[in-house]
Specification:
Elements lengths: L2 H27 L3 H5 L10 H25 L3 H20 L7
């Protein structure tokens, strides 16, 4: 391997590790979602506090939905590093004050 290939692999590993940690943090924040969702099925009502928590959990899940969609697709695990790179590229562009392309 030449120097550029080694640097690219190192960069890819760092990017994957950073995105993995971010994904783990988000998933840890949504731990109380299932009991909250089961309240109506158990003939309980959601309180206003429960509704606020539900909205918070759903916002967190919407942040990680691109990852979940890729993982569900056939061969999606192979595409995860490419998705992490693309999301990171968009984040860097926004941080630089540029508008994201759609």
């Amino acid at each position: 391997m030449n120097g550029r290939t080694g640097a690219a692999l190192k960069s890819l590993r760092e990017l994957t590790a950073r995105e993995k940690q971010s994904l783990i943090r988000e998933l840890q924040q949504v731990q109380g979602l299932l009991p909250l969702l089961m309240k109506p099925r158990n003939k309980e009502h959601w309180t206003p506090e429960d509704r606020v928590q539900l909205a918070s959990h759903l916002k967190r899940l919407s942040k990680i939905s691109p990852y979940l969609a890729v993982l569900v697709m056939p061969g999606g695990f192979v595409m995860l590093p490419a998705l992490a790179w693309w999301l990171d590229r968009r984040r860097n562009r926004r941080g630089a004050g540029q508008l994201p392309r759609v």
